[in-house]
Design goal:
The chain has 156 residues and is mostly helical. The chain contains eight helices and no strands.
Length: 156
Amino acid sequence: MATHLLTSFSSLRLLRLPLIVLAVCCCLSGGGCMSKKDRAQLFYPQAATNRAATATAMAAAWRNQEIKLDDCLDMAFDHLENDSDAASIAFAGAVLDFAAEIERELPQQPEYFILWMRIGGLAGHSATTAYNLGDFPAARSLVLAGPRKWQTDKYW
C-alpha cells in the first residue's frame, strides 16, 4: 500500500513538471506576462500614423487596467528627450489626447497636483520640440493639449 502511494505521488509530480515548464515558457515568451509599461510601448509606432485612434485605444487599455498613464507620460518625455522627432511628437500628442479622454476618471483631489503639472509639462515640452523642428501646426495643437484641468491658474 505504501509503495503504491509513493508511486502515485511520483507520477503526479511528473505530470506537474510539464505544466510548470509550459507556464514558465509562456511567461518568458511574453504570452500574457507583458508588463503595463511594455504594453504601453506598443502604442508608440501607432501614434505616428493615427494620433486620435491611438489615444482612443490607449484610453480603452487604461480602462481595462492594461496600461498606466504614468508610464505613458514617462515614455513620452523619454522619447522627446532622446529622439526629438516626428514620431515622439505624435506619441506625446496621443498621450495628451488620451489624458483628455479620461480626464473625468482621473483623481481630482488637490494632492494629485503633480500629475496635472506633468501633463501640462508634456504639452509644453512637446509643443517646444515640434516648434524647434519647424512643425508649427503640431506645436499649435500641442501647446494647450490634454485635459483642461492643468491649464488653470492653480497649476501655474
